């Protein structure tokens, strides 16, 4: 038996851990426990629940309204790892500055970032959005069309990214990618970046923006960026979407080619 005195001695340590890691406990509660409970209660996936909320709270054909509904749901109801409004403003600014005509998104998930990108594109631009999960892609398709974007502006490709990238030139007649947004599995960041480098679709000035490189983190990706010498790059430091107190960041890369 543990004596009361020993048990009491651990209370300050426990309180210190709870205070230091409180935001991570909040994230675990919202992203894991609430999701598991709602899965059981509703019989719907988290993404389907988010779509139903957006459908009843947003204005069809209004991308801003759809993003606002998503943000409200993710902030107040359940957690989904969208880029969110704060980091989203960095994405918005870069898209405005670059005015890309050909954009590749790796990881559409349920369509939030797809809509955010599409609304910022210049006339005549085209977004190719890749999502490997068929169920998530079905939700993303509904969200994209609800926002008012047709196939001429956004083409959703349902397939793993490592299968799509080698076929972009042959199957989609792409010659160059002006902008790439990465927000899929973090373990795929480095191999997919290397596939893009080998594809010949990155030209001088092509921009890659990768989310969540600090949390959950993509250390192999960042190591490759540093060691390759192919990029001018920087980290945009921020906090995790919809959860304050957890440090995160996005990596902005500008392709320079082999020097």
Compact overview of the structure:
This protein is α/β, with parallel strands linked by helices and 259 residues long. The chain has helices at residues 4-9, 11-20, 22-42, 46-57, 63-76, 84-98, 112-120, 134-146, 161-164, 168-172, 189-199, 213-217, 219-228, and strands spanning 102-106, 126-131, 154-158, 177-182, 202-210, 231-239, 247-255.
Helix content: 40-55%
Mean pLDDT: 94
Alpha carbon gyration radius? 20 Å
Strand and helix order: HHHHHHEHEHEHHEHEHHEE
Largest sheet: 7 strands, mixed
Structural class: alpha/beta
Number of strands: 7
Which residues sit in consecutive blocks of at least 5 with pLDDT less than 50?
A: none
The rounded distance between the terminal residues' Cα atoms is: 68 Å
Going across the biggest sheet, name each strand in turn: 3-2-1-4-5-7-6
Commentary on this structure:
With 259 residues, this protein is of the alpha/beta class. 52% of the residues lie in helices and 19% in strands. It has a seven-stranded mixed β-sheet with strand order 3-2-1-4-5-7-6, sandwiched between helices. Strand 4 (177-182), helix 11 and strand 5 (202-210) form a beta-alpha-beta unit. Helix 4 packs across helix 5 (63-76), helix 4 (46-57) packs parallel to helix 8 and helix 5 (63-76) packs antiparallel against helix 7. The termini are far apart.
